[in-house]
Write a structure and sequence with these properties.
The protein is an alpha/beta fold. It folds into three domains: 34 residues; 201 residues, Rossmann fold, CATH 3.40.50; 105 residues, 3-Layer(aba) Sandwich (Rossmann fold), CATH 3.40.50.40. The protein has eleven helices and 16 strands. Strands 4-3-5-6-7-8-11-12 form an eight-stranded mixed sheet. Strand 5, helix 6 and strand 6 form a beta-alpha-beta unit. Helix 10 packs across helix 11. It starts with a strand and ends with a helix. Bound molecules: aspartic acid. Aspartic acid binds next to loops.
């Protein structure tokens, strides 16, 4: 249950203005005056903003520049101060976890973030968390948290496509919407959410689909969970795959993650890519195959050898949508794209090296 700080606000402004300020009534009977004025208690949720950098915190040399800027130039307090309306919808505090472009989000940041989110959400004074993040690898961090957060409280990952310095920057409204979603009772138990461009997606299903355009985040095959319209949150779908409290993954004691490499499938894909991954210590491999996860005959043969060496291989697809179905050669990624399949394989390997258990994770999460 979300615990919220109470504050008293005036509803019915016109009526309250009509009441003389000093009636001699207030000191003795505050609640009656509140009733008279149409005042009532409204709850403001406590939302923590954890900032990691990205374009939402980006600064460009001119206000028309939307590429070639510095991602992660602005600190969390400046981000919060830029949207004073946040204090109307939540009690806000910010923490800077990192300040980098999201291609530089690494294992250290992922683990720091997940541990911090779990600590904060275990506290009564946190109702929800917003994470500001670069959009390039946002879906990887969001899915990592979707698998490792141990709470039903809302966690929302948000970014922007235009730097904070741009005309019509999308960051402030995205941040406002993210805080609104993170503070909402109706967002509880939905897993990690991604909010951009007035839409609410599940971390499992949403992906960046366009290099530069504002509407880049799509949940093409299975749809968004909801949207923000007219200042209201509207949900339409539930995430049925297991997440957060339903997974076995516990990052609280972890200081590193297994090494999982992604190998892209194409015509004439050479076998030395697999050899290079194995020689460089890969604990697992994800293939981004063509179509339904297919590889060339040479690629399929080498996958068998890699599996025989005890390195699990997960077959995903480079197509970007759809389900990779099971075969006897490797574990099917189901509908996870290669970058999310990598996250799940890394986490799976923190628990087990049994391919059957790993396969079960891919079927359930
Ligand atoms: N390169 C940026 C990043 O991912 C792009 C963005 O945030 O939109 O940090």
């Amino acid at each position: 249950m979300i615990m919220m700080k109470k504050r008293v606000v005036a509803l019915g402004l016109a009526f309250s203005l009509a009441i003389p300020a000093s009636t001699g009534f207030a000191a003795s009977s505050t609640s009656s005056v509140q009733d008279l004025l149409g005042m009532q208690e409204e709850s403001l949720p406590n939302v923590k903003i954890l900032a990691t950098g990205g374009t939402i915190a980006g600064s460009a040399a001119s206000n028309t520049a939307t590429t070639g800027y510095t991602a992660g130039a602005i600190g969390v307090e400046t981000l919060i101060d830029a949207v004073p309306e946040l204090t109307d919808i939540a009690t806000i505090s910010g923490e800077q976890i990192a300040n980098v472009g999201s291609p530089n989000i690494d294992t250290d940041v992922l683990l720091t973030l997940a541990k911090r989110v779990n600590v904060l959400l275990a506290q009564d004074d946190t109702d929800g968390i917003v994470i500001t993040h670069g959009t390039d690898t946002l879906e990887e961090t969001a899915f990592f948290l979707h698998m490792t957060v141990k709470s039903d409280k809302p966690v929302v990952v948000v970014g922007a496509m235009r730097p904070a310095t741009a005309i019509s920057a999308d960051g402030p409204m995205n941040l406002y919407n993210a805080v609104k979603v993170a503070g909402a009772e109706k967002s509880v138990g939905k897993g990690v959410l991604v909010v951009l461009n007035d839409r609410i997606g599940s971390a499992r299903m949403i992906s960046k689909t366009n290099t530069t355009m504002l509407d880049t985040f799509q949940s093409e095959e299975y749809g968004f969970l909801g949207a923000i319209a007219g200042g209201e949150i509207h949900y339409y779908q539930e995430m049925l795959r297991k997440h957060t409290t339903e997974t076995p993954f516990d990052v609280s004691e972890l200081t590193e993650l297994p090494q999982v490499d992604i190998l892209y499938g194409y015509q004439n894909m050479p076998s030395y890519l697999f050899e290079a991954a194995a020689a460089n210590g890969a604990d697992g491999i994800v293939t981004a195959g063509s179509g339904n996860g297919s590889l060339s005959s040479i690629g399929s043969e080498v996958v068998k050898k890699v599996i025989e060496k005890g390195i699990p291989v997960v077959r995903a697809s480079r197509v970007g949508n759809g389900i990779v179905t099971e075969t006897s050669n490797g574990i099917a990624a189901d509908s996870l794209n290669p970058q999310k399949a990598r996250i799940l394989l890394m986490l799976a390997l923190t628990e087990t090296d049994d391919p059957e258990v790993i396969e079960q994770y891919f079927n359930e999460f």
